[in-house]
């Protein structure tokens, strides 16, 4: 337990040291230059590293790619066996190495110099090969490792990972990367489901149950049965939503022995709940739970354009 807590404490010190680096003028200016180069690259960010730095580089690649910055991982061991061909003059190389002296990185450095490909470095050693070769070098804090022998990469990789996330977030903000953009790159799984818009799940066109307020109770019942959404919208002659008539309303009406030829407008719920098409499905579901309803109508400037049932949201994985 003591060793575990110590490792967390050392990791925290490493992150604090990285945060302090951003307060230094030279480091901050270098970071701004690095972001500018990545923002303006016409191709991709080629991220590379060996050992534990390589594992961090893979994660960094995935984060960049999923947040709007095209990136690809290049394994140094494969680079000298043909994979350098994936690097084009339109790309930029981001090289991770805590020591800055990993021999496996040599061929990539030589390739970048030969073909004038921008090389961005991340290392903790200011006078290392990587730092010297890089066009822009982010000097990471030289923090102690958490392991008892100060050898196994622990704190250093934590700092690398945190810097990669900070870089990705900065690029996201520069690009104006929105939740909608994020959903485009994450269409599957629970995360994607929470970013679905109402317009993606709602019934449209002829699938929307609707009648005018002059329609009879029988006509409204037939429309509800056809659409199978548990209710129907009541609209005026301009297609504007003015009310709703649900299964519950029908049961209460039948219990009261009303004549089914009477106008449904007399028994509708006026000004029913409605949402816009760009509303997150998650927010629509929360509204349904709060107001204890199963059906929401979707309107654009007051006009009915869709309907969404709670079951549709749940079946899509919205929660």
From TrEMBL:
PROSITE patterns linked: CBS, SIS
Coiled-coil parts of chain: none
SMART domains per the UniProt record, alphabetical: CBS
BP GO annotations: carbohydrate derivative metabolic process; carbohydrate metabolic process
EC number: 5.3.1.13
Keywords recorded for this protein, A-Z: CBS domain, Isomerase, Metal-binding, Repeat, Zinc
Gene Ontology MF, one: metal ion binding
Residues the UniProt record annotates as site (Catalytically relevant): 52, 104, 145, 186
The protein's enzyme class: isomerase
Domain SIS: 34-177
Gene3D superfamilies according to UniProt: CBS-domain, Glucose-6-phosphate isomerase like protein, domain 1
Keyword Cytoplasm appears in the UniProt entry: no
Residues the record lists as binding Zn(2+): 75
Family: Belongs to the SIS family. GutQ/KpsF subfamily.
UniProt-recorded name of the protein: Arabinose 5-phosphate isomerase
Organism of derivation: Sphingobium indicum BiD32
